[in-house]
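dumping this here so i dont lose it
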């Protein structure tokens, strides 16, 4: 039985690619590459619902470096799609060679993504990683050159497909054919293509070029404000406030109201001063609606060396 390692995003295209290969008697293992920008929970849920073999590999450190400085540049936002796909293919190739898989497969659809899923980009990625004509793309195979796996008879090209473009009609037909009841609906794609998050990340890269995964984690949580080169993050609801509390580093300042409900605020930076703290307190009170009407608000501040309570007159 041929063995394939399939890059799995959790989305419909890679799910269908898994089922297409499985229907031809291929032993398919799906692999999800976890980074600081996308986690595996949704992929695990979809895989479990569809009886897929799934493994998760963390490539966060390597991925962060290409997000900071991609060889082939960014897309419309802060999305280094070609470098990102290339990194994942490289990692998959290492696993394939070590564990003796017969080939790598992906759920890519020709013409679906303008930067990374066109003829030139697919060929460039294959060249760079040394896998020319060795990556099987079941949904678009008939629009692409014959692969080594097809030549060897490991998969039947006639039972692969020729999907092209951004439409989903052909995929929905296959959903019915394979009896798939649970799948992820098409959404906005990778968080790095999101305009709001891309702006946040661009600001972070400008102020802190040496930012880390800890900084990315808080960047995805709450309202973000900058005071000089200090980042102020304010939770928008109970869940975010609890998360911010767990994400706070020993070097952060943490601001909470004492007598009335309000958001958790953290201050992170190397140049935090009294002016920054005052600004963070004013923002915390602003987003605590019950506090705005009080003549005096008590605020607790925790910092690396201790904590204190201040009374803020309004």
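and the seq i came up w/
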């Amino acid at each position: 039985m041929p063995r394939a390692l399939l890059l799995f995003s959790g989305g419909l295209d890679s799910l269908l690619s898994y089922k297409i290969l499985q229907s031809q008697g291929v032993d398919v293992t799906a692999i999800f590459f976890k980074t600081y920008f996308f986690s595996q929970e949704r992929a695990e849920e979809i895989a479990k619902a569809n009886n897929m073999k799934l493994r998760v590999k963390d490539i966060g450190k390597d991925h962060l470096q290409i997000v900071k400085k991609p060889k082939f540049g960014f897309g419309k936002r802060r999305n280094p799609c070609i470098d990102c796909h290339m990194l994942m293919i490289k990692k998959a190739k290492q696993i394939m060679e070590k564990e003796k898989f017969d080939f790598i497969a992906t759920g890519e659809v020709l013409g679906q993504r303008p930067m990374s899923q066109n003829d030139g980009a697919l060929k460039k990625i294959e060249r760079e990683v040394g896998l020319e004509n060795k990556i099987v793309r079941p949904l678009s195979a008939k629009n692409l050159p014959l692969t080594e796996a097809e030549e060897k008879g490991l998969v039947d090209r006639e039972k692969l497909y020729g999907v092209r473009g951004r439409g989903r009609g052909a995929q929905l037909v296959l959903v019915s054919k394979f009896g798939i009841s649970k799948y992820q609906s098409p959404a906005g794609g990778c968080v790095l293509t999101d305009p709001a998050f891309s702006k946040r990340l661009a600001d972070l890269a400008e102020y802190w070029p040496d930012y880390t995964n800890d900084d990315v984690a808080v960047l995805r949580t709450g309202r973000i404000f900058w005071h000089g080169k200090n980042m102020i993050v304010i939770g928008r609801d109970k869940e975010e406030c609890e998360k911010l509390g767990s994400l706070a580093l020993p070097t952060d300042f943490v601001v909470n109201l004492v007598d009335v409900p309000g958001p958790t605020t953290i201050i992170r930076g190397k140049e935090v001063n009294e002016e920054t703290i005052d600004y963070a307190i004013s923002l915390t009170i602003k987003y605590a609606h019950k506090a705005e009407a009080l003549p005096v608000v008590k605020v607790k501040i925790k910092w690396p060396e201790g904590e204190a309570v201040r009374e803020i007159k309004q």
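The chain has two domains: 3-189, 221-313.
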